[in-house]
Amino acid sequence: MRTFQEIKDNYRFSEPDIEILKGLLPVVEPHVERVVDDFYNLFLQIPDAAKYLKDDALIARLKGMHRLWLLALFQGPYDERYFQRLQRIGQAHVRINLSAHFVYVGMNLIRQHLHQIIETEVDPRQREGALRALEKILDLNLDIIARTYHEEELRRVFLSHKLDSLLIRFSQRFTFGLNILLVVGLLGLSLGAVGLVVQDIIHVVQGNLSQGLVSAMGSVLILWVVIELLDMEIDRLRGGAFKLQLFVGLALVAFIRKVLVASLTSHDLWTEALFLAGILVCGVIFWLVSRAEAGKA
Fold this sequence. Notes:
The chain is mainly alpha-helical. About 85% of the residues lie in helices and about 0% in strands.
């Protein structure tokens, strides 16, 4: 934030300008009431601005404050207190959510009125210096008042950006933690599938050949799918693509294993037909998904 002295220096607002402005006070003061009335008449005709001016008592109070500001343009003193008053004006506008657009519109109207007064009532030999000093003080006021809007916008953007970044970082870490948990879970399932295969092999060794072989085939299928899921998850953590076909394959393997097990424990043809239909549907879906994912590769 620049100091008021820096702002005045950058505008080359000097003592001669101050003397010229003070000399213009007697010229401008008789017109202040008309300028202020025109200012509020303009905004009362703009719906988006008029909604802030519904109360007659409020309008009267604002007009009084506006007259003081207008006279202060030519009175000074242009010190730190003057600077703080302009900041409070900007903060008041921000507080009621008045668009900065109307600040520029209002300043344009004030500028036109004061130009007309100077061009009409100031000696031609002094007119150029008077207009130059007027432009400096008006631009200086607009700079400080409008700066409040910009600083408020920057503050909101900064807070929003900071909050967004915090949420994004938290979400990334949380998601990574869930992925690690998923890998651990798949490792556990892999061990469980290995246990099923071992159990089925024991059945074969014990002499239950037919049941053990069929059950082992189903267990091996499950182990294969779990290994594929584990490989896919590890690949995805390294930046690989998500593969939907593996999840369809898991459903397909589950149906196949169910049919194998059912063939050993049941002779219900309708149940087996239902399982076979499920295998057919999953097989078609698996084929379609595989083709779609191959086309994207």
